[in-house]
UniProtKB/TrEMBL annotation:
The keyword Hydrolase applies. It is an enzyme of class 3 (hydrolase). This is alpha-L-fucosidase. Its EC number is 3.2.1.51. Belongs to the glycosyl hydrolase 29 family.
Amino acid sequence: MNLKNLILAFFIFTNASISTLAQVKAPNLLLPVPSKNQLRWQQMEYYAFVHLSVNTYTDMSWGRGDEDPKIFNPEKLDCRQWARICKAAGMKGIILTAKHHSGFCLWPSKYTEYSIKNSPWKNGKGDIVREMANACKEYGLKLGIYLSPWDRNHPDYGKPEYITYFRNQLRELLTNYGEIFEVWFDGANGGSGYYGGANETRKIDRTTYYDWENTYKLVRSLQPNIVIWNDGGDRADLRWVGTEAGYIGETNWSLLNDKGDVPEEMLRYGVENGNAWVPGEVNTSIRPEWFYHPKEDSQVKTLPQLMDTYYNSIGRNATLLLNFPIMPNGLIHPFDEKAVLDFGKAVKTAFAINLIKNSKVVASNVRGNDPKFGANKTIDVSNESYWTTDDEVKTGSLTFNFARPVTFNRFLVQEYIPLGQRVKAFTLEAFVNNQWEEIAKETTIGYKRILRFKTVKATKLRLNITDAKACPLISNIGIYDAPQILVPPVAMRERSGDVRIIPADMESQIFYTLDGSMPTLKSNQYTEPIKTDDGKVLLKCISYDPKSKKTSTLTEAKFDVSKRTWKIVGIEDKEANSLLDGNTDTQWYQKNTLKLPIDLVIDLGRTLKISGFKYLPDQHWWGSGIISNYSFFISENGNDWKQVDEGEFSNIKNNPLWQTKTFSPSKARYIKLRALKNTDDNQTVGYAEIDIITE
Ligand code: FUL
């Protein structure tokens, strides 16, 4: 090497080392951050729940714990069918209710006789957890376990001995069936149960009884890669979102405080300055209830409902846990299968083409001017790279320039959460007709945020991070032109008997039939409330969009007799009529000076043959006065009453749906609903709607 080359080599060497020394550092962690298990779980995004137990055979929401194991016989049970459907729908795992509140075990537990080993299914030789584990393996799905802490069968429930039993069962489930990705500890506890024949109410302190600290230790020692879900009194890895209706807040921090109580509505939003990473999981069923009820065959969620659920869960920084109630024969119902497959297809279609890929992107600031943190990292498809700014810069923008105008109606953005959730506020602008138009103004992003808006055609798009806890880290961005899905109309019957149909938007037309036939564009067009007589009505209707020539799925509504002649007896308050107005959004509360039991008496104005009644509680977020235990009476003259039913509205607090109860038909002109207990154990009683079922 001559001198010139030597000098050159020296320069190259020193420059290289200078640039290594000056290498731009990645941002520091913004605590708290997700654990490896939480991150892996979040990336699964979408997985299934399956509910099957003895109460599948009694048409109840919860088993009481005294059901005979002999009723459990899912003759056609095929976990491969469940796994095939979930896989085809785009899901990544399945959580099985190995033991629900009834206490009945779907595996042959060594520690109880109350299990499938005493059922006729496979002559007591079967093991559904095993079959599920095998099917998951075959279809490349992960397996999760739901083990109800509340056990309405076990004689020791409420005593310390039960905790040993519970842990023994956990040990069986977390040892014998391979890797488990999630364990679900449901906090529901209605108190009453069979309890080995005691038939009583047992109260436990949910914060101390299960000694969660040691139970968690056991879980983690058996399954190091697991995440724990718990809404029953101790902070776990994942949080309930406060509703089973299928959504989480638009503002959604994956944070809570590790100690102290969170006001329940904060489950929906997380806690902005929380000190623990506890992301939300949206759990909801594909039908109104969790267990199979034949009457819900016509209430499987429609495609627009499921798409809403998708955007309101995965699109809001949560995961989606979607439930299939298994039929008594052991299979997923074909309607549910079709609904979830259509849903999977619609999601795939909506996000098939990311139209941002070919844009040129410029950032307002790039950390240390280092291309490693450049704006391009948001469109390179990798989850590992991200755009970020210098430490002191907590706001900034990314501008995407398109060669030709681009048409889109969805925006997807992801933060790089391994370094914490940072963005507090952002806006989105589109450059249309030579000017910037704001199309969205939002708060948090988190792992994934998807926005829906009216279709725009723009030559540029700008994302502005307007507030963040620390320098923002954006790992992915997408824009999509998702096909519109027409929402079916909603129908209600007013007290007068008139049927009102409400379209989802002002541009679509509605066609309907009243004779049970399928509506077409030749059927009656809806223009004003439909006059009917006082009898029952079967309405079928569709929406039609003349522009796109698309038709919605069918709305089918069955209404019992009209309430035109009904009167609430002995109550002056006119507001009480809102419980008969057919509008599920209005409610009425009994006077707060009354003490339970509290009666509601209605004069039907005519004698009818009644075979059941329906109760809908307050439909608002954390509505109160929800009746949990009731008795029901009928009378022909308003003086001599006959009790025709008594029981519980199981799970009504978490899932405040229409409650339907039936009994053998009897003639009556008066009905009386007696509230025996409410879900808050206080004296408040409220109603959104009351209805009857006639022969
Ligand atoms: C609730 C339970 O009471 C329901 O029956 C269902 O299992 C749901 C997932 O959780 O709290």
